[in-house]
Fold:
Amino acid sequence: MDFIIEGIQKAFQLIFSLDREIFSIVLLSLRVSLTAIVLSSLLGIPLGFLITIKKFFGKKLTIILMNTLLAFPTVVVGLMVYSLISRRGPLGVFGLLFTPTAMVIGQFILAIPIIIALTHSAIQGIDKRVEKTALTLGATKLQSAWAILKEARYAILEAITTAFGRVIAEVGAAMMLGGNIKGSTRIMTTAIALETSKGEFGFGIALGIILLFIALVINIFHHYFQSRRV
Amino acid sequence: MDFIIEGIQKAFQLIFSLDREIFSIVLLSLRVSLTAIVLSSLLGIPLGFLITIKKFFGKKLTIILMNTLLAFPTVVVGLMVYSLISRRGPLGVFGLLFTPTAMVIGQFILAIPIIIALTHSAIQGIDKRVEKTALTLGATKLQSAWAILKEARYAILEAITTAFGRVIAEVGAAMMLGGNIKGSTRIMTTAIALETSKGEFGFGIALGIILLFIALVINIFHHYFQSRRV
Amino acid sequence: MLKVKNLKKKYNNKTVLDIDYLGFQESKIYAIVGPNGSGKTTLLNILNLLVKPDKGQIFFRDQEIINNSNSKILEIRRKMTLVDQDPFLFQSTVYSNVAYGLKVRSLSSIVQQNRIKNALEMVGLPGFENRKVDQLSGGEAQRVVIARALVIEPEILFLDEPTASIDQKNIAKVEKIIAKIRRELRTTVIFTTHDLSQAYRLADEVISLLDGKMIKQVQENLLWGEIVKEEDGLKRFKTIGNVKFAIVSEKIGPAYVSIDPTDIILSYEPFQSSARNSFLGKIVKIIEQNNLVKLEIDIGIPLVVIITRESFQDMNFNLGSKVYLTFKASAVKLY
Amino acid sequence: MLKVKNLKKKYNNKTVLDIDYLGFQESKIYAIVGPNGSGKTTLLNILNLLVKPDKGQIFFRDQEIINNSNSKILEIRRKMTLVDQDPFLFQSTVYSNVAYGLKVRSLSSIVQQNRIKNALEMVGLPGFENRKVDQLSGGEAQRVVIARALVIEPEILFLDEPTASIDQKNIAKVEKIIAKIRRELRTTVIFTTHDLSQAYRLADEVISLLDGKMIKQVQENLLWGEIVKEEDGLKRFKTIGNVKFAIVSEKIGPAYVSIDPTDIILSYEPFQSSARNSFLGKIVKIIEQNNLVKLEIDIGIPLVVIITRESFQDMNFNLGSKVYLTFKASAVKLY
Amino acid sequence: YAEPIHLKLATTTSTENSGLLNILLPPFEDLFNIKVDVIAVGTGAAIKLGENGDVDIILTHDPDAEDKFVQNGKGVNRRDVMYNDFIVLGPSNDPAKIKGMKNVVSAFTNITNQQAFFVSRGDASGTDQKEKSLWQMANIKPGKEFYLEIGQGMGVALQTASEKQAYVLCDRGTFLAFKDKIELEVLCEGDSLLANPYSIIAVNPALYSQVKYMEAMQLIAWVTSIEGQKIIREYKKEGEILFHPVAIK
Ligand SMILES: Nc1ncnc2c1ncn2[C@@H]1O[C@H](COP(=O)(O)OP(=O)(O)OP(=O)(O)O)[C@@H](O)[C@H]1O
Ligand SMILES: Nc1ncnc2c1ncn2[C@@H]1O[C@H](COP(=O)(O)OP(=O)(O)OP(=O)(O)O)[C@@H](O)[C@H]1O
Ligand SMILES: [Mg+2]
Ligand SMILES: [Mg+2]
Structure:
């Protein structure tokens, strides 16, 4: 209990002290996770759409696999990417390990099954008449896809929010691939893990609260933006 | 790269050796995560339903908060629950720390915002006429709720799958609250973390593959069950 | 058995329903007619206790309902059912759709099966039990929805445009069903329609709605046009084809008017009278209706006139007969 | 400008459409009639290139389409549009629904605004631009969908039961629109309806479908019943009210038959002839139709008979006249 | 058999990872019918768990923090159990030329002077505290761009150092476990400053009544017993001795 109270106090202190280190950690967290989310949405939403709309061999299997990948542990994602980009790995020459780019790759892999699976279920639920109506009115394939996505926008935005929550909160891949290097790849969650292992539980909670606060601000923006567009 | 190959080999070895320890770790993972998912579904689906259907003060805020909680880092959930159930915490007398129950609590807290938020967006997308039709045909409030949930079943099952993926793959809360005690609270992900910290990357990947394999089996069952019911 | 008093319903500050009193009796058939947006669907929704009116009371067998407990409302709602204008089918089979109302009432599955079989036969869809609902044609879907309502055997059945996309053979079937359940189960049927002849053919009473208000008369001869002030200083109602009626009115501008078909007098010669409206027309349609004869007379626009069988025979009217129509300015009712 | 050859479409191994040849010419109006499930909607979907037939060819201005490239199909589909039987409105405002077809064609927003304003006025919904679509009454929604199709100014307009839930005043409006766009824009209009009088009133040609096949004749006097073998060894068609017709048929069992209203001869006295069907009936409805007169005669069931104006006058028929109907067994056509 | 009593031991990840506990504890468990639940966390977290009474006993290697733990009355009966040694690892080309140096403080000075990369755990663990104290002795304040604080465990630190071809301070046990996976070699060892002492401390039963003090004392007795110390002395990994017992001379 006292850690929570301590955590809340510390969180306020940190926020109001405008600590430069905290600030840059927060910024990096956001940069990495938002990049990963933008990229995985750009790829995942069209894929989720195609999986739902198209008939193809192995469709059911693909959907099951996507749902399975929702259970991909972050550490394992971290390990797998690590073994590709480490000095001894096939992509070692690019020197990606322990850079924000590596973290983006890890989070991208974590986010994409979520985006695909939830986009699939979002579009699954859309009235079959949307596509027909759009075609009837002269829409191209692309325009009718857009019409369907627009009808599903609420659930798709929820998919993005869910994926964002997952990656901004994940620690395993970022730790493994970024290395939690102070001043260069330390992000909110790896900082929390560090403080926790030091026994600084209150400080960990404080950082967690700041993270949630940031998520809150983003969600408020997103909600505002969403309700304006409809 | 070599870790991945090593991991795949080790995964097969482990599966076919029917290692008793691995077996009990897998079983505990499943027990904890499935319990957490059942409980959070039982609470979260009705809550998600009510949030969507009812008009109440602060509705928008509630939805934004749920979306924010999707970004709850597992370590922070672990820390917060820890400070409640630690000996010194208000619930210390129950001696829950380092038990599977504690892990269930942690995962429950992680799962519930996902279930609520995705149930909300699932029901949001359901034709408004479902409720009217059910009422018209003499359904009680509860029966009409059931009719709505049934129309949204696909997306709600996806919500459960997503939440299941999240908790079976999470490590922070389980580590903090279970303690990764060999033979009593060690689950797949904490074992993976342990092996990774030992530098046994291949073994970590092997366990990760087994975890994904289990998720696959569950998803196949779930898919089969779902397509039979429709 | 069902009545409403002082009913008011607004949407976006626009009154869409405003009814002082309306009562329905057991085992009678009521038709509600009126143009698009006149409040028919809204009225049915309120009567079926699905939408709360902003003001007013609803009585079921003299018991006030709206402010009752939820369980009481449910109990009463279970005695009625509504077939929607744009009906929704649960994404499943025809069978489980039709079974729904029985399932929520926990009826035994044997009863369910029998009733469902009967109902599907009644609407002309025997053997459709296992059809997926997205494989139905428009008219088939509409009839499934009617079957789904029939199996409940409600005391009051609301039907919102039940035959809008049903073919003629099946319209006859549905109409027979309505007559049959009234006769055999003493069901009160309240339906809306845009087919006035259907309304008169089936219903014991026809209720006309216009802009949310009940209007006394039939909507035959309901005309849309403009009230203008002519050079002679008198007000006239001008409608399509430049046909003009003398009218008694305070206001000018666009308006609905109606002329009661029984208020119009027919004659072979024009006759000098106080009635200010007199037109020459030609009979283009003759329909027998019980002891009355309904004539459609073309005076530039078609006007319906109802006269008795006797006068029809006495006057020796026939198709193509040229006749004078005479009616008072006050017979042109303004809304 | 549009024609189909050897069209076949099956659903679940049941042939729902089977048409040898069907052609549509520019600037003409076609009505497609037929009972529920006869394949009307399926035909429109195929003509609008939304559903692929299992077999057959479609030609647009003598160019085969189906096996064309996607972009070609799109180009041709953009010259037509379909108003669905159970139309879907995008969850948004009336304006953005009506604008959709213009937006996908990237028309300038000034053109959009003008056309939308005009179209909404045409369907009698001026000022509805900013209304949310879930706040429309049934008939209003149907008219929004018609407006959405009109703004595109298609060369071919398909309308699937466009007036099913529209009130009489607005039906007249929609019918006028159809006539107007044909006249002014040379649009080909192909619509389905269950209202035969509407079909004849509007269309240059009426196409009858039954069980997916085109049938030659009108669907007045289309009857459902059973062919039975009587004790005298002859086959008769038995329908409601135990009315029986002599019929020429190989098969027995349930069937549709039709009797061409012009194949029936009327007389005051029964006359001995080779025609094997003779019934006494009473005239219950008289409707003038151009130079013909359509009579409805009750012989237990209502039968429609069409005669010329002259013979109507010569015979001095009138409402209530008792007349004999005579027609040959071969006039009872079997499907 | 009666249900064994569960004793909760919080220890550092390195102890657990070395594999020693898997040899040391089973004979004790059999002998006393006590099951030891090992909770392996960071040193700081292990001490915190002890402070909160969530474990019964701790086994750590951070003398300063341990002193404070005992001074604050949270822990009682601290016993030194064993020590192992730290070593300085680095890339084989050894840019700072410290290979074979005995004096670790001057080795550290060389590393800074050469502006070679150095990976620090930066997680306030025992190893981290030791490293900090060495910098202090060398009178150097690291924290430039060549000094990477990663805030993670020893294994990752080795991995990182290998990737960056940097120097790193490491305990011998972890190095042996990672030897094959990294491209680093031992460059500096043997300084008495590099000793890494482990202590075992029971949680004060006066503060938390439910703490299993008796069993904790039994465990302390076991690891400091002749048999216990023998097991420690004889535990080898990759043919090398890892820990040197100190409880019994
Ligand atoms: N949810 C709503 N919000 C706002 N206005 C509404 C809503 N529902 C209906 N209306 C308006 O209320 C009026 C009455 O609608 P109602 O559906 O009762 O008409 P109706 O008589 O059934 O018409 P139709 O013949 O077209 O079905 C219409 O003007 C309609 O636009
Ligand atoms: N997707 C489908 N799968 C299987 N059968 C279908 C499907 N769509 C239509 N049918 C069947 O095909 C037949 C023709 O349907 P269609 O919708 O073309 O009829 P329709 O003439 O438009 O009828 P209505 O007047 O009821 O609208 C019907 O028997 C219908 O049940
Ligand atoms: Mg309506
Ligand atoms: Mg149809």
Notes: Residues C 135-140, 165, 167; D 11-12, 16, 34, 36-42, 85 surround adenosine-5'-triphosphate (ligand 2) (CB under 6 Å). Chain A touches chain D through 18 residues (CB under 8 Å).
